[in-house]
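DM from R.C. (forwarded with permission)

"hey, sorry to bug you on a friday — could you get me a structure for this? deadline for the figure draft is monday and I only need the backbone to look sensible"
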Amino acid sequence: MKKLLLASVLAASLCAAGLFANGGGEKLDIGLAMPETHVERWQKDGASLKADAEAKGYVAEVTYGDADQSKQNQQIEDFITKGAKLLIIGSVNEGVGSVVADAAKEDIEVIAYDRLITGSGDYDYYITFDNFKVGQFQGQGIVDALGLAKATDTKYITLFAGSPTDNNANFFFDGAMSVLTPFIEKGTLKVVGPYPKTSADKANFTKIATENWRADVAKARMENLLNNDAKDVVLDAVLAPNDTLARAIIEACSTDGKYDTTAKLPVVTGQDGEIASVKYIRDGKQAMTVFKDTRSLASAAIELADAILKGKEPSIKGARLDTSSYNTGKKVVKSYLLEPVMVTKDNYVEVFLASGYYKAEDLK
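My reply, with the result:
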């Protein structure tokens, strides 16, 4: 009986020390909290982050929050309980701040991954792509496809934005509008439906934002536009913030007689380089996407994590350090920005196939 009691006490002590924290006798080093799986890229991010962390000898675990901040918070608390030394968080929304604060109390470093964690002063690092430039590419894609620089007649556009809880949605939209606004002001381009000039116009931005980046929300709004504000015009373009929403918008347009063939579809933008949208671009249904190689982002994030854990000054290949642009509302965080790539029908083979991101059979 005494031996059994001693064994129980020893096991409890080992668990408290974190030696059994990861279920197999290994202590967790890096917790990877991704927001969701319904947008394809997050599944790739999670897998790449875990593989890159393990390649450097770290014990890593990845979870997906199903676009539910409460669920993600529980997952992150679990990482903290397991003794994680560092967390990489692609947050669902600002509600993640409470567990970021809990991590800070335990001296656990946090890297905000691709989504700035707003409203928090409890972390120091953010890694993402140059999201303003992503938006600029989307705006330029419309300008190029419609030939706006030389257009003499008025073209019609409607505007969509990403999730109102995702700070990146502001950067995407503002980047796009920085390119499109001169044509709107000149009268070459006319906005149909709500028209926020920037994301700071929250009353109108909320009207074009898409909750949790949900395709069904974007499709329903597009159908509503086609039956109301856009009923008496032919849309030449739709500013869509990512590929998932772009395809939903295109699907809605395809059921309207004005756009019932590929040639009649408006110019629709996107982002993320999802395989379904690459096929759409190949077939002329979607005008462009912006490729953010998540393999590079994951690799850079783990390079950053490795430097932080080893107490070294981070030096991330292919990323530039921005120490002034990204303010959480509580502090300016050190931000490492990677370069995005604009993709059209002219270069999709080079970008996706030649780089090995996709294989030729993926496009069948």
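R.C.: lifesaver. The mean pLDDT is 92.
me: no worries. Residues 131-291 form a domain with the Rossmann fold fold (CATH 3.40.50.2300).
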